[in-house]
Design brief:
By secondary structure, the chain is an alpha/beta fold. Helices cover 40% and strands 10% of the residues.
Length: 318
């Protein structure tokens, strides 16, 4: 019995050690590898308000940093929208970062409610989204919060229906965008227990893609996210025999979290995109200055709307 316990402890230590090494080694990312969209909301606002004293700061601190572009039901022709974005990035010899955000029952009906009307509509949407990316290199984050919010469905059948759609998204991205690095969203460091999330990721098809995304649209520190990523990978290694890379959203985690998720006061910009090395990629997945919803320090600004006031709060950390 003691021998078995010692062997288990040695295995746990070995896995933890390997994961720690993995997270400090690998190919370094360069910030200029990733696309800076001149038509992103902060850049457009800064150009259109050149006389505003905030414009220069927003242009320098936010608009010039590579940031992911989100795609959802607001794109009337998602294939064309994605293709135009990806083509512009490749013309600049940079890698586009994209977020697929159209799963049915998105955000459990919360501030970012919406998404495809049903499973059939979502399959058509993700087909078009993946076709728009095409054969070039890309970073793709798939459906923020979709696994962390799996409990929105109170039945096993409802949960399985969402997992089926995520597996379908994985399959279509592999088929239509074979050079894309795909990351399934895994919530944040203080939402779902690591063992539960690891099993959800497995059921959603993570074995077939690059890795998982953490802290999207949230404020937890990079170190907290890495600790959680190691815990998830520990379970993946023990139960399924593999580990995965992780992308961490650092767009507004410079001061960490105060426990409030929606436009909290005191948040600050985090490390810019490309500030570390594989298999950890730090990236601005959510555009700084975009509202979480009509709450916090932006009680009248809808989710996804850019606000120069919110942008300046992140720049100044207040």
């Amino acid at each position: 019995m003691r021998s078995r316990y010692v062997m288990k402890m040695r295995f746990t230590f070995l896995v933890s050690t390997v994961l720690a090494v993995l997270f400090v080694m690998g190919r370094a990312w360069a910030a200029d590898s990733f696309y800076v969209d001149p038509n992103a909301a902060p850049a457009v606002w800064a150009r259109g308000h050149a006389d505003d004293p905030r414009a220069a700061q927003i242009a320098a601190s936010i608009a010039r940093v590579p940031t992911a572009q989100w795609f959802g039901n607001w794109n009337h022709d998602v294939r064309t929208s994605v293709s135009q974005f990806a083509d512009a990035a490749r013309a600049a010899h940079q890698v586009p970062m994209l977020v697929a955000y159209d799963i049915p029952d998105r955000d459990c009906g919360g501030a970012s409610a919406g998404g495809a009307a049903d499973a059939t509509a979502y399959r058509a949407w993700i087909d078009a989204f993946s076709q728009g990316i095409g054969g070039g290199k890309a970073i793709v984050v798939v459906e923020p919060d979709s696994l962390a919010q799996l409990d929105c469905y109170k039945t096993v059948e409802g949960q399985e229906a969402r997992l089926v759609l995520l597996r379908y998204a994985v399959a279509r991205l592999r088929l239509n965008a074979p050079e894309a690095d795909v990351y399934l969203d895994a919530g944040n460091a203080h939402w779902i227990a690591a063992d539960v999330m690891a099993n959800r990721l497995q059921k959603a098809g993570i074995a077939e893609v690059k890795g998982f995304a953490l802290n999207v649209s949230n404020f937890y520190t990079t170190q907290e996210s890495i600790v959680y990523a190691n815990a998830v990978n520990d379970v993946l290694a023990k139960q399924f025999g593999y580990t995965k890379s992780v992308v961490i959203d650092t767009s507004r985690n410079g001061n960490g979290s105060n426990g409030q998720w929606c436009n909290p006061a005191g948040a600050r910009l985090g490390e810019p995109t490309g500030a570390t090395s594989e298999p950890v990629l730090l990236a601005w997945v959510k555009e700084p200055g975009n509202s979480d919803g009509p709450c916090g320090v932006a009680p009248s600004i809808r989710a996804g709307i850019f606000s120069p006031d919110l942008a300046m709060r992140l720049i100044e950390g207040n």
